[in-house]
Amino acid sequence: MKWPKIKLKRADMERVLIACSAALVLLLSVRSRNVETEPYEEPLDEIPQAEVSVSAGAGEDMQQTVVYYEDGDGYLVPVQRDVTRQDGIAKATLEMMVSSAKNDMDAARLGLVPVVPEGTTFDLDISQGHARVDMSAAVLDAADKEQEENLRTAIVWALTEFDTVKDVSFLVDGQKRDALTHGTNISGSYTRVGLNQEEEAVETFAADAQSVQMYFPAQDGRLLVPVSRTVYASDDVATAVFEFLRGPKEDSGLSTPLPEDVQLLGVSVADGVVTINFSEDFTKIAEQSDGGVQAMRALMMTCTRYPGIKKVKILVEGKPYDMPQTDVPTFANVAADVENSFPEVLQIE
User: Fold this and answer.
1) In angstroms, rounded to a whole number, what is the distance separating the alpha carbons of residues 131 and 164?
2) What is residue 267's predicted lDDT score, i.e. its pLDDT?
3) Can you list the positions of beta strands (E) in 74-117?
4) What is the chain's Cα-based Rg?
């Protein structure tokens, strides 16, 4: 039996292709609108092992995880990403930080890069609050000591986001190892220390020194970067606001979020609300290119990282000030927000 031949003109073929392309674009658009971004609350209590799926279809149950990337200045930057709800989210989070074609593309959309060398795999065991991370030998291919230190810190911070992890230890190919290739120590058990610690002009061993963490905008305005600073005061929200007002170091590559003339008139905390009273010059943030949105997010993230702080209230000369945005940020940049606000970060032709 011979099948009849079907002949299509070139113009007909073009029309078919155009129609298919339009349908595909429409389908993708509908799917993207169905994926909602929820505020990050608490990490899941259970941490089994599995692979991660970052793309999700309509109606899938989503959860958030915090991934640590590196920016062009070597800072570690936390980013909240939406993933399909699954078992093994802790291991999956680590896998998202490994350099690969897909992970590199995801990070590049944010202006960032993965911090763990390509080809690195993980075995993860969590017991009684302790996480043991067995990294494959590819981790020894880090470019320099800075990358090694950043990957160690990123893994510790990513895992201790979860309530079931209090500290982290490392193996390489199943063996204890004192240091990585460029000398970074991995022999101990690690908890969180200051993220992106500022270097001190003069080394000090003062007993009352504390590390305070703040968030400052990157100079291009896309991301908020955590910075830890040694102070000789209590690590509390009032100290953090004062240091935030001082801004980042001049050579940091970060932006000063508030106008230079702003003065701090007072800070108080009651019932989970921190009330900050600024001088009149604070209102100049509205003149910033984004209307002061990133400045306010940076201030709120600086404050709400302290336990019990749920809300930030701003006063100007004792009178309530209407903030330029109403969303409640997490302590991490939200990937979807960054991509939507700055779609030109990565353009694919």
Assistant:
1) 9
2) 97
3) 76-84
4) 23
